[in-house]
Amino acid sequence: MKLLRFVKPVLTVAVVAALAMGSYLIRETWLPFLQHGKPAETTAAPGESGAPSEKVIVSDQAQKNLGLTVKPVKAETFWKSIQVPGMVVDRPGHSDRGIVAPATGVVSKISHVPGDTVWPGDVLFTLKLLSESLHQTQTDLFKATQDITLAQAQRKRLADSAGAIPEVRMIEVDNQVTRLEVAVKAYRQELLNRGFGSDLIDRIAEGKFVSEVPIVVPLRPVEAKPLNTALAKRTADGPTASMFEVQELRVDLGQQVQAGQTLCVLANHQMLAVEGRAFRDETPLLERSVKEKWPVEVDFQEDVLAGWPALDQSFRISHMANNIDPINRTFAFLMPMENQSRVVEEDGRTQMLWRFRPGQKVRVLVRVQKFDSVFVLPADAVAREGPEAFVFTQNVNTFERKPVRVVLQDRQHAVVANDGSLVPGMFVVQTAAAQLNRMVKAGSSGVTKGYHIHADGSLHKNEGEGK
């Protein structure tokens, strides 16, 4: 019994050892069954080698999601500029005009209010005269006119006397007529200066005295450019004249006004100016722009949906102030501009809508340096990575990263040197360069599973996929 107790453990150990040895010898047969649940090793697809790639493949849908736009590049001239703040202002002597009272009186009627469009000859106010001197002038004009009539009748009677009257008497009558004609001319001129029209003066000379005088819209200066014929109105005298807008009313109905007091302000915003503001250290740049007669760019920051036509005019600095504002330490410079307008008519009322308005903020770009034969791209077309700069060229679905040298970059533009890194006519991505650069760095340059790439760079789905 003792022998059997020692034999059984020995046999057990021998059997286990034999089974272990046999399992090891046939491991190729049963080992794959144990590894069935483990993930299989993936093989690298073409183009997915461990070496870094400068290309990235983007599907059509992904291009739409990124909003990619591509344009061919061409060598052109670019101007480096400085940006200074500016404002649209009235052009002195052309835009605004004050209307004053010709004599002391009371405002008995106001025919137009701010916002109304008026033309030369339209009545603005009716003024009831209170000036004693003006009433006296009317009386003197009438008396002088009647005296001339009486003197001429007397001269006729003397001439009919057939020499019975001495010649000296004829000379006295002629001198009297001459003096009266001079006085009448002076009275008429005084009334003209007070705003009386020729028709009113003729009525006064006939004895029809005027107690109320109309204040009318005057003609614009001859040197002012006429508006479009659609914006002009033919007056009673016949010529086509430019319009005004009542901008400000400075009197009330029934108010007494003095001679020379401003009644209202008329405005015509066709001829305006852009006023820029620059600091003292920018003076040499502006002086050079004036000397070289370089045009100045003005960014009006307009909404493209406004529907105005293209502004086809060149801006040049016409005046630079010789004094500096002691508060903001800047000096002004002016650039003339011509405005655009639209006419709106409603319920018999005409309203003028101007494209640019005094007080409107603008950005003025003054040229300081010229770059010839460079590629001008949007700022979003260049991706930065440390000191390096990259752009992306497109070949259908394949986008290749190319290093470039940026000679100048601002908020809107990136100026790339024409040093052979890009060739004129090459299609370059205009937007989302930073996103494409991140895709290249992430290594997402392989072909998506289920797709293949053609030799022309286009991405296509494998046949049978998705069925």
Provide structural commentary.
There is one protein chain. The chain has helices spanning 2-25, 27-34, 60-66, 132-159, 167-193, 198-205, 283-292, 433-441; strands spanning 55-57, 70-72, 75-90, 96-100, 105-110, 117-118, 123-129, 212-216, 233-234, 240-241, 244-249, 256-257, 262-267, 271-279, 297-299, 319-320, 330-338, 341-346, 349-354, 361-378, 383-385, 388-395, 398-404, 406-409, 413-417, 427-429, 451-453, 459-461. The two termini are 75 Å apart. The chain has 467 residues and is an alpha+beta fold.
- Tell me the strand percentage band: 25-35%
Low-confidence stretches: 35-51, 223-241
In helices, the fraction of residues equals 25-40%
Task: Give the overall pLDDT as a whole number.
Answer: 80
Number of strands: 28
Taking the sheet with the most strands, its summary is: 8 strands, antiparallel
Radius of gyration: 46 Å
Q: Report the structural category.
A: alpha+beta
Distance between the termini: 75 Å
Count of DSSP helices? 8
What attributes does this structure have?
eight-stranded antiparallel beta sheet, 28 strands, 467 residues, rod-shaped
